[in-house]
Amino acid sequence: MQDKLFSVIRxxxxxxxxxxxxxxxxxRLVYRGERLEEAGRTASTGGCVxxxxxxGWGFASFNSIDRLAESAAMAVEQATHVGKxxxxxxxxxxxxxxxxxxxxxxxxxxxxxxxxxxxxxxxxIMLDTPGIQTTSIGYADIKKKVxxxxxxxxxxxxxxxxxNLRLSAIASRDGDVQQVGLSIGSKGDFSTVExxxxxxxxxxxxxxxxxxxxEVKGGNYTVVLDPVLAGVFVHEAFGHLSEADHIYENPQxxxxxxxxxxxxxQHLNIVDGAAVPGLRGSYSYxxxxxxxxxxxxxREGVLNSRLHSRETAAKMGEKPTGNARAINSNFxxxxxxxxxxIEPGHTTFNDMMSGIREGVYARDWYGGTTSLEMFTFSxxxxxxxxxxxxAEMIRPVVLSGNVFTTLHNIDAIGDxxxxxxxxxxxxxxxSPLPVSxxxxxxxxxxxxxxxx
Length: 452
Description:
This protein is of the alpha+beta class. It is built from 10 helices and 26 strands. Strands 8, 15, 16, 17, 18, 19, 20, 21 and 26 form a 9-stranded mixed beta sheet that branches. Strands 1, 2, 3, 4, 5, 6 and 7 form a 7-stranded mixed beta sheet that branches.
């Protein structure tokens, strides 16, 4: 295969050419209440060619290797028509490598019937809980092999396994509806989604309990976020702002995300990196053949770096960070996060809570939106804090604000880093991309909490 790909690349004229071949096999099960809506296995093979010529890109995908030469010629022709200037693309050394998939209990080897039996049990636990109206379950796993070759002389074969499970219990009473979810993912270990009976029962019971929980009075509070919600916050509210394809195309973003700008106290360090091992966003090389790295986005409170592809790095005069990713061969790689998290500090949870006369403890996540530096997030679970202690459960709260003001208002960072590996990231129609995000517990002063 290596000789075949290089023979096609060398036969064409462009400033840069890359070929990706994808081979995958996956299974998926989806439940809506009592009903199993989807259950099956799929296998697919495809590929794509991307060409750069005078600053213009061409892209063509195919589902048969027999169409490789035709698609490569098409991509080069497209780039020739588009390109009118100078190509900016960071140079890279040639890499020849083969990376095997990491796994503990391979989900691909688990029979579909066994997966269904497990999910049937989880579904029955939730539905048998008094007060639960309906449920939602989505399970997916995939084993993928990607072959990459480029005009730089790189040839890389990478295999990976990924799985994800999301369960939701929906309770209702007198027109009031409350929902609690559980999201779990893994880089190749099916055992992470086994034995969840107690946790599944817990989310159902909590959904019912929320029907009787009071609402918080809206206003500014000292808020403590658990590692899950803090991780989602740093991913959604700050991580996407750090993706350089957004920055170099937008003068307003270039002003906002200026290197050296203070974004928090010296205790604040935010990292993204596929080189962090064992997580869903981890890999050895991105989809441009750039080695994975660990990038400090914020170091000691100061904006230190952005996330780059080879093109954005060249355009902005910075180094590639190995963050060019494509969900499959139907798409070109774009700048994406990998494993994004706040590094741990030195504050214990008890010390973080002490001294809070009245505040809010927000856990887990439900949803949210961001618009440049403004964000709105819904917690999946919340409690009042009274005199330094966790008190009564309240309805899930909505947190809103300016991300940069909020980062400055983080006055305590815990010593208990935890990574959330459930869910996936979406951008430019490419979803769900495997990522992880995390944080220790963090304390935020003057956080706006929506309520009655």
